[in-house]
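If you are new to this repository, start here. Below is one unmodified record pulled from the training split, so you can see the exact layout before writing a loader.
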Amino acid sequence: MSKRTKLFFRRGAGLLLAAGILYSCASVGRIEGGPIDEDPPVFVRSTPQPGGLNYDRRRVTIEFDEYIKLENASEKVVISPPQVQQPDIKTRGKKVVINLQDTLKPDMTYTIDFSDAIEDNNESNPLYDFAFTFATGERLDSMVVSGTLLNASNLEPVKGMLVGLHANLEDSAFTALPFDRVGRTDSRGRFSIRGIAPGRYRIYGLQDADQNYFFSQPSENIAFNDSLVIPTSEPRVAQDTMWIDTLTYDTIIPRAYTHYLPDDLLLFAFKEHTTRAQRLAKAERSVMHKFTLCFTAPADTLPLLEGLNFDATDAFIIEKPTGRIDTLDYWIKDSLIYQQDTLKMRLSYLYTDTLNQLVPRTDTLALVSKVKPKSEEEKAKEREKKEKERKKRRKKGDEPEPPDTEFLSMEVYAPSAMDIYDYLTLTFTEPVASIDTTAIHLRQKVDTLWTDIPFELQQDTADIKLYNIFADWTPGESYAFEVDSTAIHGLYGLFTDKVKKEFKAKKLEDYGQIFFDVVGADSASFVELLDAQDKVLRTVPLTQGRADFYYLNPGKYCARLIEDTNHNGQWDTGDYARKLQPESVYYYWQVIEVKANFDLTQSWDIKDRPRDKQKPDELKKQKPDEDKRNKNRNNRSSSGNSGRGYSY
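And here is the target side for that same chain:
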């Protein structure tokens, strides 16, 4: 082979090698065909060593067997004792580096609880319940207490709430001193507080808005336990199973470990009832004939209003809109008043001063309408335009449009299939001036004839623009509701148009019933029937241990019981200063499916299971972090005790 031929082959091989390298660099991706990595990162080494003593540096480095990342470290990572200055927590390749900003306390056990914040960089497999511990003295405190924190009003798991311990048993410690040890609740409401020294403690929950680790703002959600917490431990044995395949196990290996108690603490979070400062927040006139006064808090008495350029005597219909008890709508009755561009008035009301006392206050208001009324010239132009359009239609031979008639808007609630316990509702957009009840007819079809039946018309107690019509419906019968034209006169001169609605009352066999036999509840209790979204459908008092719900449409239902200790017919929150826990709430533990023409009697012992196991999963809005848990399910099941996690 000649030198020229050898040189050619060498150059060709070099070009092929370079092309291969360039292609491999341009093709970024995972080689297909291999198994997906489902293993979490594995701890390799650290500085200090796990459980190290006499450590006096403020930097902690933890290394793993693969590249890692942190998810929501500011929310998930909790350090005990709590740090006033937030630590700097970062990842560097395979390492987590924690730089503590606070000066280390002498003879103290430090715990860095990562929860599931550590994940591998590629597949995001989380390392569950990982905690790292070291001590600045000669002793390492190792006690652990754990439990669950729920919303007191609906037993919903509370995620991301601090739970802390105080060795100071005085009540004032919670409102003046940072916690001694802290943990944070996960997506199931579960918490663990680690690195505890033997002793007696009080335990609290805190939604720490200002991050000072004590209860300092009335708006913060809190929880407290009436009993002291005394950490203990006991030896236990877990059974680790070695599997040959998914169906056959090889051997069971007993493994001794230390179990820490208590592990079933229950805390119930609530927000105290706070009295907001009373002030006038806003006064506006969105339309000519109405103005609105908005206050920062509801008052026991209406404000006094004096007109400065009009007579305010009997000039308004005052409405408290539904669900807005701190808002007042003033509907102006006299057109000579509301046609004024500006309404000037003097308003006297109770105002919260700097000493938090209600004192009289008077403001002068000038309310200008945001919507200007049409002038007579504008109205004349509109009439002229419509008349021209009618003339054009006549020339073309088209039928002229009938003259426009504006009616009072009225919405009629009358479903075609009426529940036998339901009623009709008339809804208006403005207050009603008068109703001619003789022009309203409710008829029942008897054989082939429509027969008038008695009814009762009542203005709704919560909304002055609603009127309810009550009657005794006969199951399975047909009805017709009619309103003659001009039967109802609105406050601003408009009348209603003619309306007719036909409907049929449901049959008794269309319904089911649920009867609860309740055990363990206080006599001053009531039961709420809930739908599948945890919404209250009906409420009945507990009578001689019974709570009966009749005429239920087929579907799925749940139930909640409230021990009404103050007999006011509603759930009430707690008060830490008075050591008053929120009223106790219990759930029936399963969803009940009601079928038509079927009666169901359920025995319900409200204390036959812990309250964190009562609320059905279908009702919970706070769902567990299912995606990550499903990815790591095999690893957790093979650990033998999935709740303990990893501590170093």
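Two things worth knowing about this chain: The CA atoms of residues 349 and 361 lie 6 Å apart. DSSP finds seven helices and 45 strands in the chain.
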